[in-house]
Each structure stands twice: as C-alpha cells, then as structure tokens.
Amino acid sequence: MFKGLFKKRKKTPSKIETWKKFELFELFNDLDKAKKTLSKLYEGDSEVSENAKKFYQEFLEELNDLKYQNVPDFERICIWFAPNSSWNYFNGIAEIELGNRIYERANNWNKANNYSV
After folding, report:
1. 114: how many CB neighbours lie within 10 A of its CB?
2. CA angle at residue 68 from 50 to 108, to 5 degrees?
3. Which DSSP category does 85 fall into?
C-alpha cells in the first residue's frame, strides 16, 4: 500500500531540456542564418525569378509562424532543406552545410514528435 505512495515518478523534461536535446536553439539560429543568406540574395535584386521570390516569402512566413508555435512542426522546413531541394536550387552551392544542418535537426524533431515529411 505504501509502496505506491512513495514510488518515484518519471520526471518529465522541461521545455528547455527538450529543446537542448533536439538542438532547437541551434536550429532556430541556423534558420536565422538562412534568412540572412536569402535576404542578401533576393532583396532588391530585380533579376531574381518569381519562384525564388515566392520561396523567400514563404520561408519568411513559415519562420515567423514557427517561432510562435508551442510545439513546432518543421514539415515544410524539412521539405525545403532536404538534400537537392529548394534550398540548394535557389541558393546554389553556397551554404549547403547550413541547409544540411537545418534538415538534420528539423527531421530529428519531426520524427520524435510523429510528424511526417
């Protein structure tokens, strides 16, 4: 009877502990770096294609939405930053490692939270 009262309960990790485990702080830092990289490429350049401008605008909207979600879903980020996808296409060879880091971290988070890509 008393064993049940004094049994150790599993400690639920705090939000900060969870974010550290999945490197979400680093992921958001990398997403901000991607934003800066894209802004240098696309803002004020009249030669940029409409598809590239659309990608940039959608990325900005998604990033803003992600920053205010309690449990972020990085599905679109995974699609955009997967190897040989939008990030590499619109950004060229520059910053491939940044894209790979973003994809890896976002994908790990989505898998752990049962989001599909």
Report:
1. 6
2. 80
3. S
Say how far apart CA 76 and CA 62 lie, in whole Å.
8
Q: CA neighbours within 13 Å on the CB side: how many for 107? A: 13
Q: Look at the pTM and tell me if it is higher than 0.85.
A: no
What confidence tens digit (pLDDT) does each residue in 60-104 have? 999 999 988 877 889 999 999 999 898 988 877 678 999 999 999
DSSP string, 24-81: HHHHHHHHHHHHHHHHHHHTT-TTS-HHHHHHHHHHHHHHHHHHT-SS---HHHHHHH
d(CA 115, CA 45): 36
Our measurement of the distance from residue 65's CA atom to the centroid of its chain's CA atoms, rounded to an integer in Å, reads 11
CB 91 within 8 A of CB 66: no
- If 0-12 CB within 10 Å is exposed, 13-18 middle and 19+ buried, where does residue 112 land? exposed
